[in-house]
Specification:
single chain; mainly alpha; 9 helices
């Protein structure tokens, strides 16, 4: 794996080059690139500036640990795979075959999703049945989580190629390797697993409320309250 230049000058990431021009017109990159540039520069200076390297490494560890305790854990793997693919030009050809585990809908119908959530929320506010409340609450939470998850993943896929290309052009891609070497815990808690399940159920159009209605109807048919 290549090493960074021994001396990396401070620079304005928005001066010069096609990538810089693109960043200058995108407020998201205007915020992101200077921060990531500074981080990668510090992580490239393991031997030249060990104290600064150690402090930056600790910040990365803290941030990744925090993210690993949320639904963003799968997104971390997605980002790391994109970073690893950036090394194809540096002799790590096997990264080209890596496949992201992230599943999302890049063409989600925003209006339809919002309307579905509103309808479910009205039913949730109106019912007094505890089982029905739980089923509706799961559907509402799942749809909201899925809606934001799809939006975040879409943004990541849109921005990552630009970010990686910029870091490579700056000659500090070794900094991304240092970030990749930090391995957060892969043991999600029960709450995390539960939220992930209801989010993925929403993405698969699996409704807990519909299952509850079907079960209630089956029970009424069996007791003779409804015709089969």
């Amino acid at each position: 794996m290549p090493s960074c230049p021994k001396s990396i000058k401070r620079c304005n990431p928005f001066k010069g080059g096609q990538q810089s021009a693109a960043a200058g017109s995108d407020p998201r990159l205007q915020v992101l690139l200077p921060l990531l540039h500074r981080r990668c520069r510090n992580l490239c200076n393991r031997y030249e500036a060990p104290r600064r390297y150690a402090e930056e490494r600790r910040r990365v560890e803290v941030e990744l640990k925090s993210i690993s305790q949320t639904l963003g854990f799968d997104l971390l793997e997605h980002i790391m795979i994109a970073f690893r693919k950036a090394y194809r030009e540096h002799g790590i050809s096997e990264a080209a075959g890596l496949v992201s585990p992230v599943k999302y809908d890049s063409e989600i119908n925003t209006s339809s999703m919002i309307q579905d959530i509103k309808v479910l929320q009205v039913k949730l506010d109106a019912t007094m049945d505890e089982d029905e409340q739980r089923a509706l609450a799961e559907d509402v939470a799942g749809k909201i989580l899925w809606f934001f998850w799809c939006g975040i993943c879409t943004e990541v896929d849109e921005l990552l190629p630009k970010v990686v290309n910029y870091i490579r052009r700056e000659g500090i891609i070794q900094g991304l390797a240092e970030i990749h070497l930090v391995k957060p815990s892969q043991d999600p808690g029960d709450d995390q697993m539960h939220l992930q399940r209801i989010m993925l159920d929403a993405g698969a159009n699996t409704s807990k409320y519909k299952l509850w209605l079907d079960n209630r109807r089956d029970g009424q048919v069996q007791t003779g309250a409804l015709p089969p």
